[in-house]
Structures are given as C-alpha cells and as structure tokens.
C-alpha cells in the first residue's frame, strides 16, 4: 500500500463504499457481494503490481512482449474496477435513503466537518504518502 498509489486509491474508495453500505444498512447478502467485489479489485491491483515487477525484472530493456504483459495486467484491473463500479451502483443506489443521509450530513455541522476531515485525510493517504 505504501508503494502503490493506485492501490491506495482503491483502499480509500473501498472505505467510503463500506461506510455508505453501513449507513444504508445493507442486508448481509448485499454486504457480502460488496466485500467480494472490493476484494476482487484489490487482488487484481496486487497481481498487476506483481506482474509489472516481474516483467521489469525479466526484461529491464523495453520489449514489445513486456509491454503487452503490462498492458494486459493493467487492463484486468480496469475491467475489475469498472465492474465493481457497476456492482456498487446496483447495490447502493437507494435514492430515498441517500437523500436522507445527505440531508443529515449537511444539516449537522459536526457530521459535515467530519466528512471534510475524512476527505482531507483520504487525499493525504492517496497523494501525501511517499512512494519508494
């Protein structure tokens, strides 16, 4: 997590999605599907990093086959992330409840400030951490 900004982005997004799922009080089955979807994206990001690192080790110079391996691994992450967005919308799209949550956040100063602080913390996690 410390060395991969994209992984940090996925972790931060997952944290917000899980918080929203808790606020929406998703049932156990939907929550489980959401967890599996998030885990899939994180695993794909880890595999992408492993493949890219292995390709760099095996082929330090540029090679067309090395490029294909890296592009396919990155494409797998993209497909997984795009699918997870669709699953997330399918599971979390509850307009009536979302409006109530938004109103509570905007009407309660302490809740609003908490959201702002969490967003600043999330930005620090994603962009403020030094990569190796």
Write a structural description:
The protein is mostly helical and 132 residues long. It has helices at residues 5-24, 28-58, 64-92, 95-107, 109-128. Helix 1 packs antiparallel against helix 2, helix 1 (5-24) runs antiparallel to helix 5 (109-128) and helix 4 crosses helix 5. The longest helix is centred in the first third of the chain and has 31 residues, at 28-58. The N and C termini lie close together (11 Å). The mean pLDDT is 91.
Topology, pairings included?
Layout: H1 5-24, H2 28-58, H3 64-92, H4 95-107, H5 109-128
Summary tags:
single chain, 132 residues, mainly alpha, 86% helix, 0% strand, elongated
Please compute the radius of gyration using only Cα atoms: 18 Å
What is the average per-residue confidence, as pLDDT, rounded to a whole number? 91
Question: Regarding quaternary structure, how should these chains be classified?
Answer: single chain
Count of discrete alpha- or pi-helical segments spanning 4 or more residues: 5
Helix content: over 70%
What fraction of the residues are assigned to beta strands by DSSP? under 5%
How many strand units? Answer: 0
Task: Explain briefly what this protein structure is.
With 132 residues, the protein is mainly α. It is built from 5 helices and no strands. α1 (5-24) packs antiparallel against α5 and α4 (95-107) packs across α5 (109-128).
């Amino acid at each position: 997590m410390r060395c991969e900004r994209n992984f940090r982005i996925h972790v931060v997004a997952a944290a917000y999605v899980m918080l929203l799922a808790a606020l929406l009080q998703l049932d156990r089955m939907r929550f489980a599907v959401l967890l599996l979807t998030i885990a899939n994206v994180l695993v794909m990001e880890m595999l992408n990093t492993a493949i890219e690192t292995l390709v760099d080790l095996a082929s330090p110079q540029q090679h067309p086959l090395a490029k294909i391996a890296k592009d396919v691994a990155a494409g797998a992450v993209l497909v997984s992330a795009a699918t997870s967005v669709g699953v997330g919308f399918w599971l979390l799209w509850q307009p009536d409840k979302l409006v109530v949550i938004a109103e509570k956040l905007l009407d309660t100063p302490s809740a609003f400030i908490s959201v702002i602080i969490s967003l600043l913390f999330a930005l620090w996690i994603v962009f403020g951490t030094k990569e190796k």
